[in-house]
Amino acid sequence: MRHSNHSITTNVLFALGLTVAIQATVVAQDDLNRLPPTQISIDSAILASFTDEPCHHFEEARARLAAADARQAADHLRIGAAFLKLEAARATPQGHEPLAASIRELEELAEAVEQGAVRATSPLDAAFMRAHYALAGHHCIKAAHRCCQVNTLQHQAESQQSSQDLRAAAKHLERASWWGQQEVDFETAELLQKSHLAADALSSNAPQAHDNATQAIVGLSGKLEKLTGRKIMLAPQVTEADELGPSIFR
Q1: What is the pLDDT along the chain (250 residues), one digit of tens a residue?
Q2: CA distance 65 to 82
Q3: Is pTM, for the whole model, over 0.85?
């Protein structure tokens, strides 16, 4: 069963590899003016289009390993890790930690698969589940932080980015359940549906959109805490540079 449609071109993968190789920091477009000369900016809308790419490469890695093609399996594991690096570059310190752990796990698995030390697919499934949980937590935190920014000049832009992260958080939670061979119960299915609807409402700036998004974010974070045992702090640290207004998460 496949969850994603692969649409990445060779040129995009080359650019991705170059970005990861130079360890560039990925930032939102609105931070462009604050970038040092050594950093680059990737618009968050572009990153949003890559949401399903880790799962695609996880599926390919598993299929290649099952077919005894260790080299290709390792390649897909490393590409999957590269997509996590893109998100880790814009993650909060809290969101970065589990992403970094998954990146290390995927890279170590790639090395072990390539050397023939791992031939079973079960270690991959478990690693993929953890990677999707890490991604879901990261996007959940980012969605919450964006909802806290109420500067009227940036309101629509923040709503769009929060919508993208909320939708991604729900997707990765669902993917994690799939890799963990866990049936999505009614409560979780309802939460996922509400999250997607709330993301759509945020994107269109519908009435009560932020209230509905808040409920979805809190619900997703609570579910992730139960599943992973990791506490998710949704309130961002307030700094002068952030220009954050009052937050419903505080």
Answers
A1: 455 445 444 444 544 554 444 344 444 444 444 545 445 556 666 777 788 899 999 999 999 999 999 999 999 999 999 999 999 998 999 999 999 999 999 999 999 999 999 999 999 999 999 999 999 999 999 999 877 654 444 567 778 888 999 999 999 999 999 999 888 899 999 999 999 999 999 888 787 888 899 999 999 999 999 999 999 988 755 444 444 444 444 3
A2: 19
A3: no
**Residue 189 to residues 21, 35, 142, 173, 184, Cα–Cα distance (Å):** 38, 40, 22, 10, 6
Tokens encoding 218: 């809190």
Handedness of CA 138, 192, 213, 58 (dihedral sign): positive
- Tokens for 78? 């490393």
Name the residue among 186, 185, 188, 214 with its Cα closest to residue 199: 214
Tokens 């919450």 sit on residue: 144
